[in-house]
Design brief:
Bound molecules: pyridoxal-5'-phosphate
Strand order of the largest sheet: 1-7-6-5-4-2-3
CATH superfamily of the largest domain: Type I PLP-dependent aspartate aminotransferase-like (Major domain)
Number of domains: 3
Strand content: 5-15%
Shape: globular
Order of helices and strands: HHHHHEHEHEHEHEEHEHHHHEEHEEH
CATH architecture of the largest domain: 3-Layer(aba) Sandwich
Distance between the termini: 67 Å
CATH topology of the largest domain: Aspartate Aminotransferase, domain 2
CATH class of the largest domain: Alpha Beta
Radius of gyration: 24 Å
Length: 469
């Protein structure tokens, strides 16, 4: 049987199912508020609705789409719900969904410029836009500077890439691979430790934090000096702008100066909070960014662009390409040989790459920078309002400064009362709030930033907290 004999749906049928699916998504988003935020299944429930074997005969698409409601929906946790206050947001938007759809429709491979120039050039243009929108060093623009950005699947990938490049540079310079050391704070995201481990670092130091949960620069210096004295090779350090636990901000400028003094690669992890840098009044948090070697942030967290979409910028793309470029004969082409084009396959570990930039391009254009700024400012304002309500109420204690749109608090009566409040909030179908632990103390994280959240939803959450205590 040739492909022509396969029972493809006709393009007319495709058009019809496409309309139905967009309607289904619009209905979902339009009614999402009436659903419980959390999934409604026990382990194995979804699997039990799926036959043990793949179907031997073709099934009609109407039946397949119908199973979105029957099989998938009960097992979905609704991250796009306006009562989503868990973890960090995984925001999306109609513009992003259309971009994603267009990307799937084109189904191109952007591993080389020549395999679809639009995939490469839209991506580099959009990431150059973001350099300016976020107040990053102009030299990070790929069109005019030595730096440049590339989209990756996740911040974990971006961080891992930075670790790999630093390691390759060090070993190329003759350093003993078994003696390389990477540093992050004790509050750094687990992707720092995981990235370092999988990139082959034998020594990973998680540096003490101060009482705002930011990395202590003196403790970092002491650790670097102790490692040098022990004849190890410190080569990589990460500053977080917005840690996962409490959105603490490490002293970027001090870490940058120290990295320059000792010759370390300085990576900035702004996975969540990077989006706030579109606001000029928030950029003091990244003061010193001009001395960083790399920077990652996730539009798929707070910038209305659905997963996966993580930006990775480097100050000097030659270092990245030098470490990662491998050119097998089957990828040789005249455009690459001319040196005039970007081949993103050299900017990360995978070869194949999809048209991720399309959804980000759609988002930035369909909202416009002014609206995006207002949107982020609203989240910051609502977080401050909730913080003020909690702060003036003697039943509660604020656990960490509300720097962005994450509010961290606990019950003033202690651990048991906080856990009881967590349990009561977990019973509420209209909200999703996740606890965390710092210094053996349980606290509640309220992360504001879901696309459809309005001030009234944050106020409703406050009412639930108030009545639960
Ligand atoms: N870094 C920080 C500060 C984060 O908060 C997160 C996720 O929440 C990550 C890295 C990992 O992001 P990703 O899931 O894109 O790997």
């Amino acid at each position: 049987m040739s492909a022509a004999d396969l029972p493809h749906m006709s393009l007319d049928e495709f058009r019809k199912h496409g309309h139905d699916l967009i309607d289904w998504i619009a209905d979902y988003l339009g009614t999402i508020e009436s659903r419980p935020v959390d999934h409604q299944v026990q382990p194995g429930d979804v699997r039990a609705m799926i036959p043990d074997r793949a179907p031997a005969a073709a099934e009609p698409m109407s039946e397949i789409l119908g199973d979105l409601d029957r099989v998938v929906m009960p097992g979905m946790t609704h991250w796009q719900h306006p009562g989503w206050f868990g973890y960090f947001p995984a925001s999306s938007s109609p513009a992003a969904i259309l971009g994603e759809l267009a990307s799937a429709g084109l189904a191109g491979q952007g591993m080389l410029w020549s395999t679809s120039p639009a995939i490469t050039e839209v991506e580099s243009a959009v990431l150059d836009w973001l350099v300016e929108l976020m107040g990053l060093p102009p030299s990070w623009r790929v069109d005019t500077g030595p730096g440049g950005g590339v989209l990756q699947m996740s911040a974990s990938d971006s961080t891992h890439t930075a670790l790999v490049v630093a390691r390759i540079q060090a070993t190329n310079a003759g350093l003993d691979a078994s003696k390389l050391v990477a540093y992050g704070s004790a509050q750094a995201h687990s992707s720092i430790e995981k990235g370092a481990r999988t990139a082959g670092y034998n020594h990973i130091r998680l540096i003490d934090v101060d009482d705002t949960f930011a990395m202590s620069a003196p403790a970092l210096r002491a650790a670097v000096e102790a490692d040098i004295a022990a004849e190890l090779h410190p080569i990589w350090v990460c500053s977080a702008i917005g840690t996962t636990g409490t959105t603490a901000v490490d002293p970027v400028a001090e870490v940058g100066a120290l990295a320059q003094e000792f010759g370390l690669w300085h990576h900035i992890d702004a996975a969540y909070a990077g989006t706030a840098m579109i606001l000029p009044e928030m950029r003091h948090f990244q003061a010193g960014v001009e001395f960083a070697d790399s920077y990652t942030f996730n539009p798929h967290k707070w910038m209305l662009t659905n997963f996966d979409c993580s930006v990775f910028w480097v100050a000097d793309r030659a270092k990245l390409i030098g470490a990662l470029s491998i050119l097998p004969p089957y990828l040789r082409n005249t455009a690459s040989a001319s040196g005039e084009v970007i081949d993103y396959r050299d900017w990360h570990v995978p070869l194949g790459r999809r048209f991720r930039a399309l959804k980000l391009w759609f988002v930035l254009r369909s909202y416009g920078a002014d609206n995006l700024r207002s949107y982020i400012r609203s989240h910051l304002d609502w977080a401050q309002e909730l913080t003020a309500q909690l702060d003036k109420d003697p039943r509660f204690e604020i656990v960490a400064p509300t720097t962005f749109a994450l509010v961290c608090f606990r019950h003033a009566a202690g651990e048991e009362a906080t856990k009881a409040l967590v349990a009561k909030l977990a019973e509420e179908p209209s909200v999703y709030v996740a606890p965390s632990v710092v210094n053996d103390t349980t606290f509640i994280r309220v992360s504001i930033g879901s696309t459809w959240t309005e001030r009234r939803h944050v106020q409703a959450l406050w009412d639930l907290i108030d009545s639960a205590c």
